[in-house]
Amino acid sequence: MTHSHPSSRSASGHSLKPLLPYTCFSCSSPCMLVTLGVIGFLCSVYVAAMSSHAPSTGVSPVPLSSSMDSVAWVLHVAAPETRTHMGGNEEQWLLQDIGRDLEYEAIEGADEEGENDDTPKTERVCTRGIVLLVSITVLVSFLLYVLSHQPPDLSKPGMQLVFTIKDSGDALTIPAINAGRFNAVIDWGDGTDPGSIRNYQSNNLYHHYAEPGDYTVSIDGTFPGLSFKDWYSKALIRIIRLGDTGLTTLSWAFAGCTCLTEVGGTANLSGVTDMSHMFSGCSGLTTVDVSAWDTSGVTDMSRLFYGCKGLVSLDLSTWDTSSVYTMSAMFQSCASIKDLKVSSFDTSSVTDLSDMFNGLARIKTLDLSRWDTSAVTNMSSLFYGCGTRTLMISTWDTSRVTDMSKMFYSILLDTLDISLWDTGNVANMNSMFDSCPFLLSLPIGDWDTSQVTSMSGMFQDVRALTSLDIYRWDTSSVTDMSGMFDSCYSLADFDVSSWDTSSVTDLSSMFAVCHSLTTLDLSLWDTSSVDNMQSVFDNCISLFTLDVATWDTSKVTSMVNLFHNCESLTSPLHDRVWDVSSLENSHDMCTGCPEGMCDSLCPY
């Protein structure tokens, strides 16, 4: 049976334009994707209809293979109700005519194949499954397209940055990074049309300026991340505000922007977790007002202001740091800072404080008494080169700290109250108090040092220190004591006779240049593991009593300068010859000692 195509005129006799013009079916056009979405929906309805017996129509479902057959089936099922409720709208009547026509075709197909359909049930199920899968794919593609082509939200304050363009024709690129979905517009501040940004590689992130000058670039909408590292970093001179652009990261955002002088304004950082290296190397930065920033979600603040040599004061008292786990090198090399407000920091989640105040040579006071350091494991170089004369850290919980190496290296304090610290887990105390020229006392005799493996340079060059009460220390795990008391010019009174040195391999320069040291009882030391004894007592010019004759030197390879310039020795160091079977070098071993004081320890 053959049916003519329904009339193209409405009930009123007026001609109708096609509902979907041909020109809409471009593969990349919204109309095409809308149509695909409708087809996908109809295919889904078809699959649902094929799963039932359509009792309301009296027609059994038939296997249909094309998209138009799917439309025919849906309209066939809906036709009776449609004829009952449709009004006089001409488009509706046209759809009714099309539905009726397609209904006839569907019924005809059913008459011809219906009962005689011998298509295996498995094949029909597979066909329906494929149709459903295609439908879902088309619908998802359609939804993604719609979402990606939403207009940017311009209701929120955007980002504003000021750049200096030096020459006519100079280009500027906003270095967006792959940090999420972009949907923004950029106003370049020179009167040209704004550019639309849909992804981090958009051509609209690049712009030429006709004239030199300072330009305020505004970014509105969704712009999740940028990084000036190695990109036009010398052009940025001011951050008016970061605004509310859906930022997800600020890691390396403005690193190396040496001409950046001012940072201020509002910033919604609720989606940001990483601020590491954000202003790293911004040596020209002098003015920072970030009091309105929400940092509650940030977890990484490492090297945030690293190398900001121009900063004199910094107020971060309003920052919420409760989620931060690392503040490593956060202010390192900020050599000009005199006033730093961080006393209110919530550090309860912080595990790494290494190098945080390293190089703050001009800071005078640091009140850190309220800091919760119970989770911290790394305090290495924390106050390295710090100029503070007042340091409030006596109540810190250090029970989890494993690394205190160089923690107070070259500080200018004369007193340090850390006697109550729990050091039971510390493994590294390398150079912990190295080069502290004014330190007069250290009440650390009750420290638990049972886990420490390195004490190399621990008190090296602490020139003003006269005494140390550390005879109770457990040194059974220590392997390196090299330079431990090197250049302690004033140290005259301390007892280390009971120390367990059975694990020590390196004693080089341990007591070198201890000018005030007069006597040392080391007769009970176990040196069976030591391989390096170079310069152990070098230039101990006041030492007159030393008993080391019983030392086990069977593994020692170097005794260079061992007793060099021990000019005050009054009694021989020997009652037997040392085992030098492993010795490779003993140059100047006894040079400068009184004649006969140590010669017999070494057979050559």
UniProtKB/TrEMBL annotation:
A Pfam family per the record: DUF285
UniProt keywords, alphabetically: Membrane, Signal, Transmembrane, Transmembrane helix
Membrane-spanning intervals of the chain: 20-47, 130-147
Domain of life: Eukaryota
Keyword Membrane applies: yes
SUPFAM superfamilies: L domain-like
Transmembrane helix in keyword set: yes
Segments forming domain 4Fe-4S ferredoxin-type: 581-604
Name the UniProt record assigns to this protein: 4Fe-4S ferredoxin-type domain-containing protein
Native source organism of the sequence: Kipferlia bialata
